[in-house]
Specification:
By secondary structure, the protein is mainly alpha-helical. It has seven helices and no strands. It is globular, with a radius of gyration of 19 Å. The N terminus is likely disordered.
Length: 195
């Protein structure tokens, strides 16, 4: 079972998912710690932004789409790189850091209201697992490309196997789109109800 054999696809995705999960948690912890260290000027800006959002202000759909799709698309782009299997997990760690920092700084600036946790937590229940799944697939594909180019393996990476990566990717992208629409149009109503 040691090394990268011909069955790297499924074993690699499982290991990649585990590595990405650990890096997400590590990034979240570091982000949570550093979010407590914001200045008073930054705290005022964060509090003003949160008051707008928590009072039911509608975010811009294009901004939400960019926020929800930027890192997953970067992760998919890294699948085409020979060293993408090394860089893609850093995308998940960065997402963990950003989410931890955002929640921690929002709680520091505006207090620990339920709206803060709903605003950041509900979308993250879908966006984070999608990012981890896409990144694990990207790591597997990129590692396969790296193996082929280094002559460790003679088969084409990912293309000869029907491992469901395409369906998984499509499902994740559809879920990300649905979350973006819900975050734009349903989240303000939910937050108004909680006020």
């Amino acid at each position: 079972m040691g090394g990268y054999g011909a069955n790297y696809g499924n074993f690699g995705k499982e290991r990649g998912g585990f590595i990405c999960s650990l890096l997400f948690l590590s990034g979240g912890i570091l982000g949570g710690i550093s979010g407590k260290l914001i200045s008073q000027g930054s705290a005022r800006q964060i509090k003003d932004g949160l008051e707008f959002i928590l009072s039911g202000g509608e975010p811009n759909l294009s901004t939400v789409l960019l926020d929800n799709f930027m890192l997953p698309l970067l992760s998919l782009f890294l699948a085409t790189s020979v060293i993408g299997w090394l860089l893609a997990p850093l995308v998940v760690a960065a997402r963990g850091y950003m989410l931890g920092w955002a929640i921690s700084s929002a709680v520091s600036a505006a207090g620990a209201g339920i709206g803060v946790y709903i605003y950041y937590g509900l979308p993250a229940l879908v966006t984070v697992p999608c990012l981890i799944c896409l990144t694990a697939s990207s790591m597997s594909i990129s590692r396969g490309i790296s193996d082929v180019l280094s002559q460790r393996r003679r088969s084409t990476p990912g293309s000869t196997k029907a491992d469901g990566s395409g369906r998984q990717t499509a499902a994740c992208l559809i879920l990300l789109l649905a979350v973006s629409v819900a975050q734009t149009y349903l989240m303000p109503t939910l937050l108004k109800m909680l006020q």
